[in-house]
């Protein structure tokens, strides 16, 4: 016959495992929206080019890999046509434009190579901060306007999100490009006015073509002088319903290969500590004699 204290120990261990499992599951099950810009001059959704990702193909930087990417062309409006990483249609919309598309030669041997192959290209001209704001002027391209995030986040139990920007051109001589998120200043689509910045300005230096390795650009790279090598940026802790991904070319090109909006759900800390409390209560029960 087993001793009662041993039974208590076994029960305590089981409860602890359940608590940990619930906590890990609740914090790891984040949905995302992936936009993959393919190498084509055509507009809208583009699932035909060789660098388009199939629905089941998984791509993305470490920790944010996903399937069900949206493959998009040089310019367009995706209204009602976007889906998230679960494959479900969502109410989030995107408007984007570039002067042309190009590629860095990454090819299509793996899903990650496809994601990094094609990109929205820039023109080498400085941005024009006019009033009203001219979203479609070549000087301000490439840029992406996303809206309708609040309702989508609500369905995921997520009060905030991160934005992952993939950037890698076809040169390796250290070209520098600048990226940041900005609020729209009005309700137009695309905006005709600019609001305040939603993120810091990050300066990425392109010293290598993508060969299968993702290198994150640190957020502290906030000037030309301390631009950092890398091919993706993560802007964190965002809550705005809409944003404009803006770019500025400091050395001719500020490319956008892809974009992810990653929902960040609240960790189930209440549930975790409640179950942990049960384990403590069980552990402190007096021994039976």
- The total count of strands amounts to 15
- What sort of overall outline do the alpha carbons produce when their principal axes are compared? globular
Fraction of residues in β-strands? 25-35%
Which residues form runs of ≥5 with pLDDT under 50?
Answer: 7-28, 269-289
Q: What does the model show?
A:
The protein has about 290 residues and is of the alpha+beta class. Helix content is about 20%, strand content about 25%. The chain has four helices and 15 strands. The chain has helices at about 5-30, 110-115, 150-155, 270-285; strands at about 30-35, 70, 75-80, 95, 100-105, 120, 145, 160-165, 175-185, 195, 200-205, 230, 230-240, 245-250, 260-265. The strands form three sheets. Strands 3, 4, 7, 9, 10, 11, 12 and 14 form an eight-stranded mixed sheet that branches. The protein is globular, with a radius of gyration of 23 Å. Residues about 5-30 and about 270-289 have low confidence and may be disordered.
């Amino acid at each position: 016959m087993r001793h009662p204290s041993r039974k208590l120990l076994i029960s305590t261990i089981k409860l602890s495992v359940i608590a940990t499992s619930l906590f890990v599951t609740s914090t790891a099950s984040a949905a995302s929206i992936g936009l993959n810009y393919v190498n084509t001059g055509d507009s809208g959704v583009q699932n035909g080019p060789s660098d388009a990702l199939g629905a089941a193909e998984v791509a993305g930087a470490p920790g944010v890999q996903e399937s069900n990417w949206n493959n998009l062309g040089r310019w367009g409006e995706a209204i009602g046509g976007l889906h998230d990483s679960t494959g479900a249609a969502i109410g989030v919309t995107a408007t984007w434009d570039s002067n042309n598309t190009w590629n860095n030669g990454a090819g299509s041997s793996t899903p990650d190579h496809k994601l990094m192959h094609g990109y929205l290209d820039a023109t080498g001209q400085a941005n024009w901060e006019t009033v009203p704001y001219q979203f479609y002027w070549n000087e301000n391209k490439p840029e992406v306007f996303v809206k309708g995030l609040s309702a989508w986040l609500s369905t995921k139990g997520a009060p905030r999100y991160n934005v992952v920007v993939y950037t890698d051109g076809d040169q390796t001589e250290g070209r520098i490009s600048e990226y940041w998120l900005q609020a729209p200043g009005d309700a137009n689509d695309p905006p005709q006015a600019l609001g305040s910045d939603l993120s810091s300005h990050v300066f990425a230096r392109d010293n290598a073509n993508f060969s299968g390795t993702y290198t994150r650009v640190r957020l502290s790279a906030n000037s030309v002088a301390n631009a950092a090598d890398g091919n993706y940026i993560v802007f964190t802790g965002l809550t705005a319903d809409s944003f404009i991904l803006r770019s500025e070319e400091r050395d001719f090109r500020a490319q956008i290969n892809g974009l992810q909006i990653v929902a960040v759900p609240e960790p189930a800390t209440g549930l975790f500590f409640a179950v942990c409390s049960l384990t403590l209560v069980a552990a402190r029960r007096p021994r039976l004699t």
